[in-house]
Amino acid sequence: MDLSVYEITKSFGEKQVLNGISLEARAGEALGLLGRNGAGKTTLMRIIMGIFPPDSGRVLANGQPINRRSLNIGYLPEERGLYPKKKVTEQLLYFAALHGLSKKTALKNADALFEKLDAAAYKNARLETLSKGNQQKIQLIAALITDPDIVILDEPFSGLDPVNASLFKNIVKELIQNGKTVFFSSHQMNYVEEFCDNIAILNGGKIVLGGNIKKIKRSYPRNTLLIRCENPENLSLRLKDALGGIIESADAQNDAACITLVSEKDKKRLIETALSFESEIDEIKVMEPSLNEIFISYTEEQI
Amino acid sequence: MKRFLQVFRFEFANTAKNKIFIGLTAVLLAVITGVLFFPAVKGESDTEKPAEVTSLTVIDNTQAGCAEFLKAAMTGYDITVIDGDRDSAEKLVESGELDSAIVINSPLEYTYIVNNLGLYDTTSSVISDLLLTKYKNDYLVSAGLSQQELSELNASAVSAQSVVVGQDLTKSFFYTYIIILLLYMAVMIYGQTVAQSIVTEKSSKAMELLITGAGEKNLIFGKILGNGLAGLSQLVILLVWSAVCYRINLEYWEDNMVISSLFGMDAETIALAVLFFIPGFLLYAFLYGAASSLASKAEEVGTLTMPITFIMILAFLGTFAGISMNDPENTLLKALSYVPFSAPMAMFARLSMNLATPLQAAVSLVILIASVVLIGYAAVAIYKIGILMYGKPPKFNELIRALKNR
Prior knowledge:
The complex is a heterodimer of chains A (303) and B (406). Chain A is built from 10 helices and 14 strands. Chain A has 303 residues and is α/β, with parallel strands linked by helices. Chain A folds into 2 domains: 215 residues, P-loop containing nucleotide triphosphate hydrolases (Rossmann fold); 67 residues, 2-Layer Sandwich (Alpha-Beta Plaits), CATH 3.30.70.260. In chain A, strands 6-7-8-3-9-10 form a 6-stranded mixed β-sheet, sandwiched between helices. A 4-stranded antiparallel β-sheet of chain A has the order 2-1-4-5, with helices on one face. In chain A, 38% of the residues are buried. Helices cover 70% and strands 6% of the residues of chain B. A 4-stranded mixed β-sheet of chain B has the order 2-1-3-4. Chain B is elongated, with a radius of gyration of 32 Å. Chains A and B meet through helix 2 of A and helix 1, helix 8 and helix 17 of B.
């Protein structure tokens, strides 16, 4: 199921929150929605969920206007919320029933998810007696119990310990493998890089950067090389002496020499020279900006 | 419809399975049982107790046989005649040797000395009556009336009978009052249950999942009707059990006008009460629902629902004042019976006391139902906005603006 939004605008009172957002998520892919606090990520997700309508713009599923009655969308809201005083299974069945699931199917799906999330022990506990991480597991089960085609996860990893985060990661990976369309927002860039092929960075109600992460990274200048070797200081000095004209800067970082060229074209010459100087080179790679750096450069100034 | 039924079932079970709700029902059942069986239990132990005798000490300084006359006439009293005067009697009462004393100075003048005068102490008026009778008798005898003529005169009595041609208001007044009180309490309690349940979902943030699953209309209607039915079931259980207890103890309650009139209500009156109760409950439940959807925390519900509670109290007090007035056809009651907020109580009161025509009742009911539809529509609109609005509850003009921008 492909999901796309076109030219979505939304304002609350005087405040324009979304100002012409268009993006597309394909089946079997995860789209990372990035943006600083208050950038409009949750508003966009709520519009996709149909919690409230956009002021203008369209939400399409497989190119057709979305029909949320016939389509199951799994939703993990940022504001986690279930009934604190109710038993876990009881409320999961209620949410599943509201989405049109039979009790039998709901129980079967829930059991499989309890198993995967290592949460079977809490089936009959009252929600409020569980720890925060375990409550979040139940929240994820509530989102996935209908086996939805589209899954919207608003900050799924916030507040999880590393073990639980890894359980969540496995589930998200499985969703992508099973051809689900995953919308995903997070402030933890390592997770975004791990799952998402595509990202959209929101700032000031607009998408300031969108597209395939690899392509975005390649679009940055590729004139800095990292050469990991035993004695990086020595290597960078020698390279600077030998190739002074084509090198913009050269220094040593930790265990690697970091050489910035005036022009990308001289990469081959630099590598050959380095190999001739040092026989024990462990790795040579073009330095790419991290997603974190890209994110900061696009959102540092809030529009 | 399917989703509405799911919400309805969930909310009904939620309230009906609630331990506090079940506990309250059990306590109320126990209280009803206790009250209605009380005379039966008490009756048996009562018969063994002898009637209480009040002792009274009389000092007669008249030589006219007043003490003897009182002794003969006051059968419920144990009368002792002693010698003395007012001072000595006062000392005896003060020291606690005597409970009370009557010092008769002349046929038409006496002093009643008592340590503590109780609110229901009728001794003084009984003695005044008797002394006056004796004085009149003596006077008539001295004027030449024979003893036989005198006893004939004293035996004469006026026979009176009141015939109620219209409605006996004294009888319907009691059950009308009780039904109105029940209506008032039920709307208040169940309305606030709805309010609490809405704010719980909002403050626990379960709302986002619910809206996407069920839709706002199904949620608010399911909640109000689910809670309403749970409340109505509770009322029915309590009333049916009361009726059963009453039937078992019929002999003890038949003479009690309040209780017997309540259980002697005809089916028509009960049907009217239900007919006005349901839209009345819905009206207030919608208001409570809309108001509580604006609260983010349970603590804010009280403040937000206060105006509604206030209207409800005014409607109740107004109706109660209306039916308590000397002229049952007063303008206050008539006016209140058409105002939707008070109509369920006021129109029911007029109907049960036979003071309104079926046409008037129909007009009132139509106004009431139209208001329920209107307020229901507004409540859903407010609820839709309110449940996604976190933070401080919006001011009235902010709410109006949000409704317009919708």
